[in-house]
Amino acid sequence: MNENNYLEHRIDRGQGSIYVREYAGKDPAFVLMHGFPDNLGIYDRLVPLLTAGGRRVVVFDFLGFGASDKPAGAKYSFEQQLGDLHAVVQGLNLNKIVPVGHDASGPAAVNYAIEHPEHVESVCLMNAFYVDSPTAKYPELIELFATTNLKALTQAILRSPEQFAWVLNFQRSKFQEHLKEDQKDFYAKFLGPLIDANFRNQPSSGPAFAQMTSQLFEELAKNAKRINKIWATAIPVQLIWGETDPYLNFGIAKHLQTLLKHSSLHVLPAGHWVQLDMPDRVAQIMLGNG
């Protein structure tokens, strides 16, 4: 263990390695996954509370994000992220896990339970997507990059730090519109810089972000055809949702409930990053004390 009380791992994924932190505790391990365009830092407030509850916790950066490799010419996809999760489970010899998906890692969490039910105790989703939902509204930044016939425009934006910064600032303001003042302050001091660093630091997360968003609508369609398989596994799914998220709103969680055999829904007065806005409450629910 290092001074931060976790073990660090690098797990090879062929086209690069992914960065993993492992905190000791009782199984099943919570395996926490981030969306785009952020990284494992979105769990900084939650991890200490889960480990204080005695649980083993694993958190990692997907290839192309955070401290994981960002090799030139790498191919990024939802399937690749599912493979990243499986590589972590195998690399750390995890038996039973609780995959925790936030935002764009919802598909990895659910599809891992479908493909490897023997390794999954339950699934936890936080303001995530899996299939298209009637109330879903995707962030303007995401929808822009997900619209494939605008690829020439989005590639030009990525090549211009000034233009991309403007788009990020616009999106940041939209996410903060319905947050409480203390939540806005935390966003400005912590979350905004975390996301910016993903793009500013070189090599950048820009290629991974652009490739992943371009596959968004295709992934939603694929998942619509296989969600019935999660019903067949009878694996319970815990939905923890920030109700003031203007995009991946709690209507998505309610829709998912209708598609799941065993699920529970907890709606909290928080925004998109519910684990940062209300970490104490989220930890209570995940640990079964909520």
Automatic annotation (TrEMBL):
One matching Pfam family is: Abhydrolase_1
Which keywords does UniProt give here? Answer: Hydrolase
Superkingdom, taxonomy of origin: Bacteria
A GO MF annotation of the entry reads: oxidoreductase activity
- Give the CC-aspect GO terms: membrane
Give start and end of each Tyrosinase copper-binding domain. Answer: 27-38
Give the GO biological process terms: acylglycerol catabolic process
Question: What PANTHER family does this protein's entry cite?
Answer: HYDROLASE, PUTATIVE (AFU_ORTHOLOGUE AFUA_2G14860)-RELATED, MONOACYLGLYCEROL LIPASE
Q: What is this protein called?
A: Alpha/beta fold hydrolase
What species is given as this protein's source? Paenibacillus sacheonensis
